Structure formats: structure tokens, C-alpha cells
Amino acid sequence: MLNKKFFSKKFLIIFLIIAVIIFLIIFFSFKKEKKQDYHVEDTVFNSSDSSLSLTLPGEFKFEEKKDDNFLLAVESPSTEAGVYISSIPASSIRDVSKFIEDEKDDFISHFNNTSNVSNISQLTIQGFSSSNYHFNYGDNGYVDVYWILKDSIYYVIDFRVNKELNDFSTHINDVLTSLKFN
């Protein structure tokens, strides 16, 4: 009788160990599948003249917009974010600092309730001489503009962000790093 109880307890313990192992295998495989469902591939966009490309995070679901005013215009309807790229020949600009300052003032005038308007700062992006300014508008709008000089052409990159909807502004540096000139 003792032998029978011992085997019953032994059987119960082995059964419980196997059940726990099966449960853990199912739990971790389900968790892994769930993680994979949320990963969205980044998207590469090319300018209309093929002079540049950039990579944007897939989670924002950017879509290219056809607009003759830009080399590339992409928008994310779900997050109200946008990236707009245009170019200006450097030879058409006499005084770069004044030109960018005038463009900044004109650009800002198209937005309501602007605040936190930055000065124009000089920086280097991927080894290219660049200028930057940014400002807030409305309740949660943010604009960040970069002027990048490459081969006597200024590439103007305008990031527009709704900071309340999945804030894209934290990805701007990654996008600038992904920028490839062809």
C-alpha cells in the first residue's frame, strides 16, 4: 500500500512538472508571436528627382503625397505628422543668413498661435553645413526645419508634428541620419 501511494505521488509530481513545462512553452511562444505582430518595417521614400532618399519609422504609416512644390512630401494621416523636402540652388541666394531668416518669418506667418520660436542655429548633418529652426503652433503642433547644403543646393527639410498623437518629433534625428543623397 505504501508503494502504491509513493507511485501515485511520483506520478502526480511528474504530471505537474510536464504540465508546467507545456504551459510555459505555450505562454512564451504566444508572447513571441504577439511581439512580432506589432513590428512594422521602416519605409524608404525617394524624392521625385531621385536626388535623395530617407527612411521613416513604419509605425507611423507614412504615405507619399504628390505635390509639385516638393521633391518629396510624405504624411501620416493617423498621427498628423509630415515630412516635406524641397531644394533651392545656392547660387540664387545672395545672403544665406538673411534669406533663411526671411523664409523663417514668412513660413511662421502661415501658422496660428506660434510660440517657442527658436533662433536659427548652425550645425553639421552628415558632414554637411546646415541651419535649423523650430517652433510650436496651436495647442500641440511642432515644426522643425533644416537647411542642408550639398553640392551648391540647399535641401530644405520641414518636419511637422502633432505632439499629442504618437509624437514623431523624437524620431527626427533618426530620419536625418537615414537621409541619403544620390
Assign a percent range to the helix content. 25-40%
User: Beta-strand percentage?
Assistant: 35-45%
CA-CA gap between termini: 84 Å
The CATH homologous superfamily name of the largest domain equals: Mog1/PsbP, alpha/beta/alpha sandwich
CATH architecture of the largest domain: 3-Layer(aba) Sandwich
Compute the CA-based radius of gyration: 27 Å
What is the count of DSSP helices, taking H or I runs of 4+ residues? 3
Could you give a quick summary of the protein structure above?
The protein has 182 residues and is of the alpha+beta class.
Account of the protein in words:
- With 182 residues, the protein is α+β, with helices and mostly antiparallel strands.
- The protein has two domains: 1-39; 43-181, Mog1/PsbP, alpha/beta/alpha sandwich (Protein Transport Mog1p, Chain A, 3-Layer(aba) Sandwich).
- It contains three helices and eleven strands.
- The chain has helices spanning 2-38, 96-108, 172-178, and strands spanning 43-46, 52-56, 63-64, 72-76, 81-89, 114-115, 121-125, 128-137, 141-150, 153-162, 180-181.
- The strands form two sheets. Strands 3, 4, 5, 6, 7, 8, 9 and 10 form an eight-stranded antiparallel beta sheet that branches. The chain has a three-stranded antiparallel beta sheet with strand order 1-2-11.
- Strand 9 (141-150) and strand 10 (153-162) form a beta hairpin.
Which features does this protein show?
182 residues; three-stranded antiparallel sheet; 31% helix; alpha+beta; Protein Transport Mog1p, Chain A; 3 helices
